[in-house]
TrEMBL record:
<keyword id="KW-0411">Iron-sulfur</keyword>
<feature type="domain" description="Rieske">
    <location>
        <begin position="5"/>
        <end position="101"/>
    </location>
</feature>
<dbReference type="InterPro" id="IPR036922">
    <property type="entry name" value="Rieske_2Fe-2S_sf"/>
</dbReference>
<dbReference type="InterPro" id="IPR017941">
    <property type="entry name" value="Rieske_2Fe-2S"/>
</dbReference>
<keyword id="KW-0001">2Fe-2S</keyword>
<keyword id="KW-0560">Oxidoreductase</keyword>
<keyword id="KW-0408">Iron</keyword>
<protein>
    <submittedName>
        <fullName>Nitrite reductase small subunit NirD</fullName>
    </submittedName>
</protein>
<keyword id="KW-0534">Nitrate assimilation</keyword>
<dbReference type="Pfam" id="PF00355">
    <property type="entry name" value="Rieske"/>
</dbReference>
<dbReference type="InterPro" id="IPR012748">
    <property type="entry name" value="Rieske-like_NirD"/>
</dbReference>
<keyword id="KW-0479">Metal-binding</keyword>
Amino acid sequence: MSDWKKICALTDIPVLGSRVVKSEKHGDIAVFRTSDDEVFAVHDKCPHKGGPLSQGIVHGKQVTCPLHSWKIELDSGNVVAPDVGCAKAFQAKTENGDVFLTV
């Protein structure tokens, strides 16, 4: 059974931006908002060199790492080919204008 926790209002996350959530168990989690107001959450650490994904550029349903331009799929955390790797993805959703996360 999932344990959803309210993180913030959707409007607290900029469109095409992110917000970092601290988790004792999982470290920093970046919660992203797309141009369509979808929300996704991944570990805030690029699998390549540990760059802060929360500071990357969001485009479509991907984020580009600010350090070396690796592209990460926001829904799965998978790195886009030809690069290889994965950032842990977490479940996120919106409900009544609020953002919820489960880890």
